[in-house]
Amino acid sequence: MAMTSMEEFEALLNESFEMDTPTEGSVVKGKVIAIEAGQAIIDVGYKMEGRVELKEFANPGEAPEIAVGDDVEVYLRAAENARGEAVISREMARREEAWDRLEKAYADEQRVDGAIFGRVKGGFTVDLGGAVAFLPGSQVDVRPVRDAGPLMGLKQPFQILKMDRRRGNIVVSRRAILEESRAEQRAEVIGKLAEGDSVDGVVKNITEYGAFVDLGGVDGLLHVTDMAWRRVNHPSEILSISETVKVQVIKINKDTHRISLGMKQLQEDPWDLVAAKYPLESVHKGRVTNITDYGAFVELEPGVEGLVHVSEMSWTKKNVHPGKIVSTSQEVDVMVLEIDAGKRRVSLGLKQTMRNPWEVFSETHPEGTEVEGEVKNITEFGLFIGLPGEIDGMVHLSDLSWDERGEDAIQNYRKGDMVSAVVSEVDVEKERISLSIKALGGDKFAEATGGVKRGSIVTVEVTAIEDGGIEVEYEGMKSFIRRSDLSRDRAEQRPERFSVGDKVDVRVTNVDNKTRRLGLSIKAREIAEEKEAVEQYGSSDSGASLGDILGAALKGGDE
């Protein structure tokens, strides 16, 4: 019986030990019994005391709030150290407590309060009431922060992005909170705006394509094309940062909360008066504002620009870049060719303000005029000669020489040669001028054969005797009489019976202006004479012989 009582007592005693003795590695309750030498002495029960540095009771940047008699929770790291004291930590207790609280907040997607207290690689450290979290640099603000000094130690809300208790990792964001409140603020400001409203704003940022204007908590984009009716190359031409400007709300996107703004919409549209101020074919002074591959833009007045297409820039320079004809900022005279008010386009002409050089040439150089110019180009079909007015005329192969083939005659010319020619045709519409070099001395063949026609009898001089016939000359024009045409009588068709220098009467059988040759025949002359004699002195019906008729004809010719 006594034994049983002892066992029960021992069991009860052990139970009381287990109940009152805290487990190492757990959070326990204790009471502050003294504060000395910067430490708080805490009784954690079962006659166990431990010491905690006072700074462990302070939030970052604040003084510790602790007094004798306060109940606190601490983390029991060991029941006894070498001095017989419990090893306890307020910081570790706070961390455990904080993790429980933070895990609940993370699950409920709630904000948590904390303070930035240190800087680490890639960001900052944040005290979340006992647990240390990492704040990436990109999550500090909606825009990059150069100096985070003013944010240090400041109690503020954060959003937990990620947490892993096992690894002790917590990642938080301040930016998410700012964006949320900003979105609420934007929604409130946007709710008060309507398309068409005129509002004042402050220029916050300037980019290549426009400027961002703060409308009181919400930014709107003022695109460069909506700043002025005239061409603006860069927004900084007319705006500066922090400047207050009056703008009109052009468009509000309710889904993205984007606001498009305009300044030119508050000014009078110069296009309303374009048709009246710039009638078709009127000439005006303008300034070249931009040059492209296809033409040049010319400003007629601020806000009104027209395009001079490359084809309307010069009468003579056809395949050159517009930048070779005009330069930016140059003042030029232009003619209005077309106006499309709907598309806000004006087509302008530069060459129309100058006279057509082919027209001028036609007036000053009628057909038959002699001109002189430089050989600009030599092609397989002729020569191109530079003429007054920066235009070219062409001498076709067939117009190079009377005597040589064009292919042979062109070999006599080189680029840069100065040559004379006669204007043979000017086609203003096709911008074409035909010239002739061979016509310079006149048409010798036409002059020589002016009174000669088929059937005429002419006297020629023999210049050469050949096997096939004889070469003769008439008024400086060479011709060839074939053997068969030397006589009506076959026995007399011998070239050797003629001598160089002989004068011979021949009949013209053909005048070929193209080949510039006379067709001549002695045989044809004899036949024609015979026919004439028959008609004059007898007929086939009279019974007279041919000899009688020719004798009579010859006798008659002698009288």
UniProtKB/TrEMBL annotation:
Please give a single GO biological process term from the UniProt record: translation
Superkingdom of the organism of origin: Bacteria
Q: Which residues form the S1 motif domain?
A: 25-91, 109-175, 196-264, 281-351, 368-438, 455-523
The answer on whether this UniProt entry bears the keyword RNA-binding reads yes
The Gene Ontology terms for molecular function here are: mRNA binding; structural constituent of ribosome
Under the heading SMART domains, the entry gives: S1
A cellular-component GO term for this protein = cytosolic small ribosomal subunit
User: What are the record keywords, sorted?
Assistant: Repeat, Ribonucleoprotein, Ribosomal protein, RNA-binding
PROSITE patterns of this UniProt entry? S1
Family named by the database record? Belongs to the bacterial ribosomal protein bS1 family.
Its biological purpose = Binds mRNA; thus facilitating recognition of the initiation point. It is needed to translate mRNA with a short Shine-Dalgarno (SD) purine-rich sequence.
- PANTHER family registered for this protein in UniProt: 30S RIBOSOMAL PROTEIN S1, SMALL RIBOSOMAL SUBUNIT PROTEIN BS1C
**Per its record, how is this protein called by name?**
30S ribosomal protein S1
Instruction: List the source organism.
Output: Thalassovita mediterranea
